[in-house]
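Researcher: Here's a chain I'd like modeled. Treat it as a single chain, no partners, no ligands.
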Amino acid sequence: MPDTQAPRNAPPLSILMYHQIGRFDAAPRRHRAGYCRVERFRRQMRWLAALGYRVISLDDALRGLFGGQRIPPRSVVLTFDDGYRNFSEYAFPVLEHHGFPATVFLVADRIGQHADWLRDGQVQAPLMDADTIRELHARGVTFGSHTLDHPRLTRLSPEAQWRELSESRERLESLLQAPVRHFCYPYGDYDAATRDLARRAGYESALTCIRGAANHADNPWEIPRKAISWGDSLVGYAWKLHMKHRRKDRT
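Model: Modeled as a single isolated chain. Structure tokens:
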């Protein structure tokens, strides 16, 4: 895929970032972008369908951003970080009902275990096991890598970063018996050296936690997304889709 800047004059493309989808005992006090109630998620997907949004795959988005293909107006990509078991229990049935594609980023060394990187009072939620992942893959879900252990990559040596990037891809490809083309930086933590390692590891894209429309990507390994949070009403959801296109880098 060519290393070119995404087209700024194309229709804004929103790549939405979700984490856990489900039913929760209480509203989170912190890390609200890590949770979305299934009832609210169901309404969001129903709203996309009713208003004629084009929910496209990440591969189709990349072809539009960097491959010269046309990006349809009102296009949306759905991504889910970490590979929580509640994706299979709550999110996937809703997605399948609407025929919406999705990309899920997996932590390769934690499959079938718990999200032990969660802190600050967050519940270390269970992650999908290998059989569930293979079944969802067969039913059309795209899986990408979210490293081996969910570290902050810039705190690691180049050698350790390379292991997280390359070995996670190898393990997931062995699990899926299919190419793993996409990567997502845990915590959105990366620098230019990490970005270059992701490219060298063979990923066709890498997604960030930079806010804004994906059209602001300078290359395929630094793609912005829009985080969907616990408190987003349909009005807030629409605001993010229609208005929050300007790039906002994390500081």
